[in-house]
Amino acid sequence: MVAAIGLIAGPAAPSFGQSAGLAPTHEGKPGRPTFEAGYLNGVSGPEPAKTVSLAGTWDFTPLTNTVCTGGGPFGTTTGPMTCVDSAASGKRTTIQVPGGGWLKQGYADLSRAVYSRTIRVPDVAADQVTRLTFGAVNHRATVKVDGRTVGTNVTSYTASTFDLTGFVRPGGTHRIDVTVEGRKALVGPDGRYLVPEGASWSDDVAQGIFRSADLEVLPAVSVTDAVVRTSVSKRQLSYDVSIANRTSRPQRVTLSGALSSWNREHWNYPSIPRRDVTVPADTTITVTVALPWRAGPDSFWWPNVPYREGYRAQLHDLHLAVTTGDRHAKPSTYDVRFGFRELAQAGDHYELNGVRVNFRGDSLQGANYDNIDHHGRSDAYDTFPGFLKPSRGNGGWPEAVDDYQRLNYNSVRIHQIPATPYMLDVADEMGLMIQDETAIRGSNNRENFDAGRDNMVDHLAALVQRDRNHASVLRWSQANEPQVQFFANPGAGPAFDETLYQTVMRYDTTRPISTDGESPDLPHDNYTVFCHYHGNSFGKYDESICDGPTGKPHGQGEFIWSADSTPQGLTWFGTATMRMREQGGSEARPYTLLSGWASHIPGVKRTDMQLEAGYPNGPHPIYGEDNLPNPWANPTIRLIQNAFNPVAVIDSAFWDANKLSNEAGAWPTTPAVITPGPTTRRLTVFNDTFSGERLTVSWSLRAGSASGRPVAQGSADLKVALGGRQQYPITFATPATGRPLYLDITVKKPGEGTLFHDASTVFQVKPSA
C-alpha cells in the first residue's frame, strides 16, 4: 500500500511552477499593479477558440459611498448596521482590472461604481458565442453593451459570466459598462447584508471586480461543463458532459474522450467509446458516460500522510472533445483534472478509499490576510505572494501547503472566503485534504438568510459547481455558524439548513456535508454538525468532542479562539487536539493557526496584520517571519507537530497533567512523580495513516537529560488499526536518583523509517516513604 501513495515525480511543469513575480503594471495611476495571473482560475475547464485578456486600465466612475456603523452586545463588528449613503465624486477616472478590486485601490467607502472600456470582438466564426467573464465579482454586476442591458449577476467570490452573443458583432468594436454594487449597497432595511460576504467583522474583504477579466469566444456547439465522479467502492468512473447548441438548427455531434496521467504514469485506463448524439436547436443536453476503473489501487488519490517532502498525489486528466459535421468548424474541447478517490461518512466516522480518516487541521480565514497592506489592503488570495505561484524570495502557496503538511495538519477548512481554483489545484497535487466552505456567515448577526436566501443558495450552487472536480475537496461546509446561541439571525434554522443541503445534493452527491456551529442535525446519512466552542468556551481550554448527533462523526470544528494569539493558547493547539484524538474525535480543528504563526503563509511579518478579536485594533499574531525565522526549531511548533503526528505515541497521564501549560506557553510544566522500583506507564499509540498497521514502538528512559544515559529501554511490534489507537503499557525499574528521567519514544514502520520521535515526557523520582 505504500506504493499506492507513491513517491513519484510530478510533471515537468506543475501548476505551481515558478512565477515571474508581481503582475505587470499597465498605464494609469503609477505603480498600481493589475495582478493579472491567468493561472488563478485553475487548470480545468473549456478551451475557448479565442481568449482576450481585458486586464489593465479601465475607466471608472464612483457613484455611491456608504458608511455602515453598528454595534451589538459583542462590539462594533456585531449586530445590525446603520448605513448612510452619499454621492461619490461621479467623475470618471481610471482603475486597474482586476487589480484586487476597488477597495485595494483606495476606495474604502465605495459601494457602487461603473467600470467601462471599449472591446474589440475577435472574428472567429459567424455563429460564434462571445462571453464576458470576470474571475470574481463582489457582488451584483449589471453589464451593458452600447447602452443595452445584457443582464445582472449576483456572486460572491466566484466567476460572473455574461453572454454577449446577441449584443456584439464578430470583428466589431463595442463599449461595455459594468455597474457593480458591493456588499454595502446590498444591505436590507434591517441593517443586514443580503449577500453572503464571508467576513462581516472585516472592512478589508474584496469589493468590485477581482481575479481576472476576459473576453472569450467559443464555438456555437460546445462543451459548457463537465463533472467527474469517482467511486472506489464500485471501481467506477462516470462523468456528465453538458453540450450546448447555440444555432437555430439541430446538430449531430460526436463526443469523444481520452484519459491520461498528470503524473506521467502508465495506467491501464479504460477506453472511452465515441458517442454520437443530436443536440436540438438552442438547447443544452447532458451526456453521461460510465466506465469501469481498471488502473488499480496505486492510481488512487491519497493525502500526504505521513508527511513526505516532495510528495505528489496521483491525478488524472480527462480530455473531452465535441465535433460536428462541419469539417471547417474547430472542435470544442474541455479538460478536467481529477483524482480517483471516495470519501464516505460511514456511521460515526469518515472513510477515505475505504480507510478510516480523522481530520486534524486549520481553518484558514482569508479575511485576516486581507488586512495586510500589499499595494493596498484586500484580496490577499489573488494578490499576496504567499497565496500565489512561487516567486523570487517567496515560496508561494506551495510552500504554505508544505508548511501545513510538515506540521502534520492533514486538512484545511477554507474558512468563509473561498479559495482560488489555483489554491485547490495545488492542494490536489500535494495531497492536502480540503473542507470547502461558503461565505454564508451567521457569526456576526449581519446576514439576513430570509431576505437574502436566493443569493445564499445561488452562491452555494456556484461554489459547488466550480470546485466539485477537485480531488482535494473532500467535504462541503455549507455555512458557518448560521445559528448561534447569542444571536437570532433572520431566516436561520432547520428549514434554511435543509435548503442548503438540497442545493449541494443537486450538484454533488459524492461528498459528505456539514454545517459548522450550533445548528440542529438533519436526518441525512451524509450530513452532520460540528460544534464550535463547546460550553461557551471562548478563549478557554476545551477538549470536548461534543455531544453531536448520535451515530455520526463527532469532533469540534473551532476551539481556543480568542486565546489563539497568546503563548498559552497556541500550546493548547497541541494539548487539546491530542485529548480529542484520545477520545476518537473525527474532527479536531483549533482556531486559528494564523493567530499564532501567521507566516505559515510565506512572506508575512507579525506586524503586517491585526486579528479579528478587537478588530480593527486587534492584537498582532505571535509569530511572523520577522521574529520566527526558523519555525521548526520553535518548541511550541514542535509540540503541535508531534500532537498532530499521525503515529504519535504519548504517556497519556503525563499529557493530561500538563495540558493547560502556563501563561508563557511552556511545555511541559509539571514532571510526573514516580517512586523507585517497578513502574508501569500507559502509553497511547495512534495510527492515523492510510496503509500499514504494523508499528515498532521503541522507548528508553534517560537520566539527567533527553539525551542522557539510558537506564531502561524496550520495544514492541504492535498492530494498530488504520485510523485507530490502542493502549500500550510499559514497565521499567525506576532507579533511586535525584536526577530527572526522560522518556524517549520513537515510532517506525517497515520501509518508512522513523515517523515519530518525542522526549518531552519527564519524571521526577520521589523517594518512597
TrEMBL record:
One of the GO biological process terms: carbohydrate metabolic process
Gene3D superfamilies per the UniProt record, alphabetical: Galactose-binding domain-like, Glycosidases
Coiled coil (residue ranges): none
Gene Ontology MF terms in the entry: hydrolase activity, hydrolyzing O-glycosyl compounds
SUPFAM superfamilies named among the record's database cross-references: (Trans)glycosidases, Galactose-binding domain-like
Glycosyl hydrolases family 2 sugar binding domain sequence ranges: 112-216
Transmembrane regions listed in the UniProt entry: none
Domain of life of the source: Bacteria
UniProt domain Glycoside hydrolase family 2 catalytic: residue ranges: 405-518
Family (UniProt): Belongs to the glycosyl hydrolase 2 family.
PANTHER family to which the protein is assigned, alphabetical: BETA-GALACTOSIDASE, BETA-MANNOSIDASE
Descriptive protein name: Beta-galactosidase
Species: Planotetraspora kaengkrachanensis
